[in-house]
């Protein structure tokens, strides 16, 4: 069954790679170019998972996660951070904001698909 996944990253090439990977696994993908753009797409649509970068212009990933978790419709939507940031402090900030998993770039498509499979409930 197809799941809808929101990808939030300011890198168009990264969004493209992720989209191809996720669509190849049968998922529906919605893309956002930064945290502000992503918040505008949290309009009541059902997302089974959100994958967000941390370092973005306008609204960064941690700020986006905090804002998304304030919205009742998305309070329990699992969020994966996909980022070049590998420090424990940043991971702790992501977890405190509500992120469920942390994947460091560069990533292998299988790593993302495994995380998606674990976090999306059937």
TrEMBL record:
- Superkingdom of origin organism: Bacteria
- According to the UniProt record, list the residues that bear 4-aspartylphosphate: 53
Q: Which SUPFAM superfamilies match?
A: CheY-like
Q: Which SMART domains match?
A: REC
Note the PROSITE patterns from the entry: RESPONSE_REGULATORY (PS50110)
Q: Look up keyword Phosphoprotein and say if it applies.
A: yes
Which is a Pfam family this sequence falls into?
A: Response_reg
The Response regulatory domain covers 4-120
Tell whether Phosphoprotein is among the UniProt keywords: yes
GO biological-process terms attached to the record: phosphorelay signal transduction system
Which InterPro entries does this entry report, sorted A to Z? Bact_response_regulator, CheY-like_superfamily, Sig_transdc_resp-reg_receiver
Q: Which UniProt keywords apply?
A: Phosphoprotein
Give the protein's recorded name: Response regulator
In its UniProt entry, the species of origin is given as: Duganella radicis
């Amino acid at each position: 069954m197809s799941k809808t996944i929101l990808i939030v990253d300011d890198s168009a090439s990264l969004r493209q790679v992720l989209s191809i990977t996720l669509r190849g696994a049968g998922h529906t993908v919605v893309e956002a170019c930064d945290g502000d753009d992503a918040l505008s797409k949290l309009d009541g649509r059902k997302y089974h998972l959100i994958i967000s970068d941390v370092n973005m212009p306008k609204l960064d990933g941690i700020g986006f996660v905090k804002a998304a978790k304030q919205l009742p419709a998305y309070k329990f939507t699992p969020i994966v951070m996909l980022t070049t940031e590998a420090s424990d402090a940043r991971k702790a900030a992501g977890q405190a904001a509500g992120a469920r998993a942390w994947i460091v770039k560069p990533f292998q498509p299988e790593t993302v698909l495994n995380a998606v499979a674990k976090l999306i409930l059937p």
